[in-house]
Amino acid sequence: MDHFLGIDVGSVTTKLVVVGDDEQPIYALYERTNGRPVAAIQRALGMLSAAGMSLNIRGVGATGSGRQLAAVMLGADEVRTEITAHAMAAKCACPTVSTIIDIGGQDSKVIILKRGVFTAFNMNTVCAAGTGSFLDHQATRLGIAIEDFGDYALRSTAPVKIAGRCGVFAESDLIHKQQMGYTPEDLIAGLCMSLARNFLQNVARDAEGRKMFPAVLFQGGVAANVGMRAAFETLLGQELVIPRYFKEMGAWGAALLAKRRIHHSHEPTSFRGIDHIANFACHPRSFNCPHCSNNCEISELYIDDHLMSRWGSRCAKWDNLRLSSAELVEERETAIRK
């Protein structure tokens, strides 16, 4: 059997999925990034290797905010945005899907499909209210384990009205209501309802007029919160579908996209190999290009002290990997002397 690997490197978590020819996951991993994406990627590959599975990796896909880094480290054959990857996995998990609510650690998004074709999406911009990191923070502040957060909401009998349009206002209002003596159950239920309403009024505002036709999939780490799920179902008046791999949908979609790329191109994979990736030395570096007013920040990735990739330039000046940052320093010093 051929296997295809997908990895989704986010700001909070790193997800890895391996699918077979039937496109169903045979291995899924969900780990904290802990601010160290290089270590998280290597740890994920190390855990996959330790699982002792006999794998024939024919293709690799990368997505997430750290997809460029992951693509270079793994030798990915396909690199796509989270929107494309999540939509691909959702269609595989539920062929009748029309709306996707995806809420992760730092962002939230709505994706609209018509007859299986992606047509529109919208993401949160400056406000992180309702994302996983925001809920983690509130759970810590209330002294409640995040795993129990949703259960508290379900035990509420009179949810408190919380201002949820902004994360700062939501937290301030939550503290105010807490000082008034409301129970944790009513506070959390009110917060979940407020955050769900904020998502529908703001994030989903430009997605087909906020009409969420069934089937509606709820995915991302926040889908584990039964309080948020209940709030969405109450406001939408319909039941949500929670996919089995709701936390790893981006990685699943990346694996599916890699499978399609390899099958269409008939080219061999660029994958570096599980054991090699888990053990090589990887060092990212960056510098600012002074050659125009854009002042682009150029990111470089070195593997075992060899420059493997460079990105961030608005022009093609630094596409040539033979140009090193040391040469840039020399050019800058020469320009100053002149």
Description:
The chain has 338 residues and is α/β, with parallel strands linked by helices. It has three domains: 3-86 and 249-279, ATPase, nucleotide binding domain (Nucleotidyltransferase, domain 5), CATH 3.30.420.40; 95-236, 2-Layer Sandwich (Nucleotidyltransferase, domain 5), CATH 3.30.420.40; 283-337, N-terminal domain of TfIIb, CATH 2.20.25. 39% of the residues lie in helices and 22% in strands. It has eleven helices and twelve strands. The longest helix has 20 residues, at 184-203. It starts with a strand and ends with a helix. The model has no long low-confidence stretch (mean pLDDT 89).
* Straight-line distance between termini: 63 Å
- CATH class type of the largest domain: Alpha Beta
Q: Please, how many domains?
A: 3
Rough outline = globular
The name of the CATH superfamily of the largest domain reads ATPase, nucleotide binding domain
With strands numbered from the N-terminus, the spatial order across the biggest sheet is 3-2-1-4-5
Based on DSSP secondary structure assignment, what is the total number of beta strands?
12
- Count helical runs: 11
Mean pLDDT: 89
Sheet with the most strands, sense and barrel status: 5 strands, mixed
Q: How large is the radius of gyration?
A: 22 Å
CATH domain fold name of the largest domain: Nucleotidyltransferase, domain 5
Low-confidence stretches: none
- Strand coverage percent: 15-25%
What's the architecture of the largest domain, going by CATH?
Answer: 2-Layer Sandwich
Overall structural class, as computed from helix and strand content, comes to: alpha/beta
Helix percentage: 25-40%
Order of helices and strands: EEEHEHEHEEEHHHHEHHHEEEH
